[in-house]
Design goal:
Elements: E1 2-4, E2 10-12, H1 14-24, H2 28-36, E3 38-45, E4 62-64, E5 69-71, E6 83-88, E7 106-110, E8 121-125, E9 131-133, E10 137-140, E11 143-146, E12 153-163, H3 171-178, H4 183-198, E13 207-209, E14 226-232, E15 243-248, H5 250-254, E16 262-266
Antiparallel strand pairs: 1-2, 3-12, 3-13, 4-6, 4-12, 5-9, 6-7, 7-8, 10-11, 13-14, 14-15, 15-16
Helix pairs in contact: 1-4, 2-3
């Protein structure tokens, strides 16, 4: 469903979507409503989870855990929350997302994935800025303290597609379900579209950048807010069962006003 162009742009091949719809008996009007309520995303996954046909050309674009490399004069954020994700913006496929990320440099995500965070921070380290890896130890009232440092894991980007959780409430889709259609048909059709779009990768326990959230509770990306990142705890530490979501207004994300972002942890 998604084909990668030379520029890395993910495009929806509507002809293939309609062929899939014909196979599942889904009307064209329903397909149009579904696609109108879709948003592109990037999944960040380990090498072993990449589709086999994408491994040879795979380029690392992110890392969970580890220690932060921060510019001169920038210290570990005041809350001393762990570094959970570092994204190499220049290594992400371009022209895939519908939110605006920096073209280069690194985005660093600091938050507590084990308990509701008291503070969370996203920092952008510009490309070329002299940066030094910071230790996880610090002094507090004369005592040595240690920040939680998660084991680092390299991640690779895969373009994907997400759907609004409420897309089936659209008029033609409701009419289809009230008539000859049923949820099982739409389930199979939706699964076929999404799996083909990402080569078989779904949100699961992988990090997701952009797109619609796949929450365990109420979605935080509603109204004027969109998803920046969704991070299952297990994507960072296999023994942590939380879902960590970061949302913000598109204009704040584009302007790098990361202090205005909102954080939501679901268990």
């Amino acid at each position: 469903m998604v084909r990668d162009t030379i520029s890395g742009m993910a495009l929806i091949d509507e002809r293939l979507v309609h062929e899939e719809a014909d196979e599942h008996g889904v009307p064209r009007a329903v397909v149009q409503e579904m696609m109108a309520r879709s948003r592109p995303c990037l999944y960040l996954v380990g090498f072993e989870n990449l589709p086999p046909d994408r491994r040879e050309s795979a380029r690392p674009a992110a890392r969970t855990g580890g220690l932060p490399a921060l510019p001169d004069g920038v210290d570990w954020p005041e809350g001393r929350e762990p570094l959970v994700l570092t994204v190499d913006c220049a290594a992400l496929p371009h022209h895939v997302l519908d939110i605006e990320l920096p073209a280069d440099g690194h985005l660093l995500f600091f938050t507590d994935i084990e308990y509701p965070p008291e503070s969370s921070v996203v920092l952008h380290v510009p490309a070329g800025a002299p940066a030094t890896e910071h230790s996880g130890t610090y002094a507090l009232d004369g005592e040595a303290m240690q920040v939680r440092v998660y084991e680092p894991h390299t991640l690779y980007p895969v373009a994907g597609l997400t759907l609004d959780n409420d897309w089936r409430r659209a008029p033609q889709t409701r009419a289809f379900l009230a008539g000859d259609g049923d949820d099982d048909v739409l389930d199979r059709f939706e699964e076929a579209v999404l799996e083909t779009a990402s080569g078989g990768i779904g949100s699961g326990v992988c990090v997701q950048i952009g797109g619609f959230s796949d929450p365990w509770d109420m979605p935080p990306d509603e109204g004027d807010l969109v998803l920046l990142a969704q991070m299952p705890g297990q994507a960072i530490d296999y023994n942590v069962y939380t879902l960590n979501l970061i949302v913000g207004a598109p204009e704040d994300i584009a302007a790098r006003r990361y202090t205005d972002l909102q954080y939501d942890q679901q268990c």
